[in-house]
NADPH-dependent 7-cyano-7-deazaguanine reductase (Candidatus Avisuccinivibrio stercorigallinarum), 120 residues
Amino acid sequence: YRPDILVKKPGPRVEEILRTNLLRTLCPVTGQPDHASVMIHYQGTQINHQDLFCYLMSLRLHRGFHEQCVELIYHDLKSRLKIERLEVAACFTRRGGIDINPLRSDFAVDGSSIVRTFRQ
């Protein structure tokens, strides 16, 4: 886990929605991998996509419950990159038939941003 990868750099102000299916964390109880599709919607200075990808890959050995991992990503992006508005949603693959799709946002949320993909 490497939050130091996230460094605010000068750039244009944008509103972007970024998605990846490559998020993986570890269950804090069993150590089993938890895979997720993650969506990051933000307004503010443009995030360096390569740095964001490296940061997300650094979570591959992080042990945390799904909700904690989304909160961690939200907090790291918001505090380290000084993002004006941010939403982080993750759709984790089911384990034991339980569907967990945590969302953390400071946008007005109506629930439509959580869309289950074929992976779930």
